[in-house]
Design a protein that fits this description.
CATH topology: Arp2/3 complex 21 kDa subunit ARPC3
Helix content: 55-70%
Shape: globular
CATH class: Mainly Alpha
Oligomer: single chain
Structural class: mainly alpha
Order of helices and strands: HHHHHHHHH
CATH architecture: Orthogonal Bundle
Strand content: under 5%
Number of domains: 1
Radius of gyration: 17 Å
Length: 200
């Protein structure tokens, strides 16, 4: 049986309460994703801002599992497409559905799949030990970068090709994101330990 951190926390709840807790957890991760987007640092050499969203997406998905993790990011995108100002603040990039057509669209549209991947690995116990948690989040981060760089190369900056997309959408971010990932990956084993301590 595949078990997530959320499953462990809600194991003793009855079915109706458990559904409510799952819905609340999805909404909680969606709100954290919105907050992570607001910690946005524009960079002068790329149209893609630096944010904390990817780490929220990956840690949240590891805790919720594939299906609910993906749901949290689909909800985030739906709220953004509806026009609420939940995407990263930018003096040049619009809010609403038009954001998905811009330079950050590929990253945003990759979030649900990245969440599914990290959540799927989390369900299989990857989030219970530090090194495997790092591996699960690296896999999810690879999905985010693949979506973002591909979108830049094929849609936003086709004249610059893959090398230009890597220069603006990958190289400036990979080291900071890996450092964030190494820190974030420690959260899951710690939360599992706390949950186990409560359940003994």
């Amino acid at each position: 049986m595949h078990t997530t951190l959320l499953d462990a926390i809600t194991a003793n709840a009855d079915s109706k309460l458990r559904i409510a807790e799952q819905a609340g957890a999805v909404l909680f991760i969606t709100v954290l994703t919105i907050i992570g987007a607001q910690v946005s640092i524009p960079l002068p050499f790329t149209p893609v801002p630096f944010t904390f969203q990817p780490m929220v997406v990956l840690v949240g998905a590891a805790a919720l599992g594939a299906r609910l993790g993906m749901a949290s990011q689909l909800l985030y995108l739906a709220i953004g497409i509806a026009g609420l100002p939940v995407f990263a603040a930018s003096p040049v990039l619009p809010q609403g559905a038009a954001r998905l057509l811009g330079p950050t669209g590929g990253y945003l549209m990759a979030y649900p799949l990245a969440a599914f991947v990290a959540g799927w690995l989390g369900e299989r116990g990857f989030d219970r030990r530090y090194l495997t948690a790092v591996a699960a989040m690296v896999c999810g981060l690879a999905v985010v970068f693949t979506g973002g760089v591909s979108w830049l190369a094929l849609v936003v900056q086709p004249a610059r090709g893959l090398s230009g997309a890597l220069a603006t959408g990958f190289v400036p971010f990979i080291l900071p994101d890996l450092l964030k990932l190494l820190v974030a990956a420690g959260a899951m084993p710690g939360l599992w330990w706390m949950t186990g301590a409560r359940r003994r």
